Fold this sequence. Notes:
Layout: E1 20-22, E2 32-34, E3 39-41, H1 50-53, E4 55-56, E5 66-68, E6 73-74, E7 79-81, E8 118-120, E9 125-126, E10 131-133, E11 137-138, E12 143-144, E13 149-150, E14 158-161, E15 166-170, H2 174-183, H3 190-195, H4 197-200, H5 205-213
Parallel strand pairs: 2-5, 3-6, 4-7, 5-8, 6-9, 7-10, 8-11, 9-12, 10-13, 12-14
Antiparallel strand pairs: 1-3, 14-15
Helix pairs in contact: 2-5
Amino acid sequence: MKITGPDPQSVYPIKGYQGLVFLKHFVKAANISIGDYTYFDDRRHGPDKFEEYNVLYNYDFSKVKLVIGKFCAIAAETKFLMTGDHKLDAVSTYPFPIFGNGWESAFDVHNLPVKGDIIVGHDVWFGYDCLVMNGVTIGNGAIIATRAVVKKDVPAYSIVAGNPAKVVKMRFDDLTIARLERIAWWDWDIEKINKNLHLICNLDIDRLEYVSNHP
């Protein structure tokens, strides 16, 4: 049987199951970008509610972008906190301007402090009910443990857990990580990925590197 993999343009890539979707098809906000084959699995709210329940405080005035790479696995209840920082250089932190009716003159909501965009690499696994704050970059191949609260950048191929999330283990040594970053299998065309699934799904990095260097 010829290996083709699922069509990246399919909405529900698993036949007969609509709890898992290729997420890019459910994103409408201009400041959110999702790569091919990245999936979201949520039986409770339904994956079509991702922007409503999982991308928090993405207001019209938000300056934060959410960028998620290819081949990521996002479990239910994973949340990305786009903004939410209140004015700190004042007597009150109350967000008066968002209510209008004259209160918008209190201060410019566009100048509220934000730490920056949320940038997620490729092949990242998000465990159930984790939270990612704005201003965080998550490296390729990282694993975010269940209920982790990510407030700082996550190194490539690390496993982070806890609140606040800390590195509990590196998946590979530094040399191997550097090799995997160079190989960047997620950027191969899908035919090459299909042909070499046996290497991507194993630990023979020497052979994977050879294939990467010999089209």
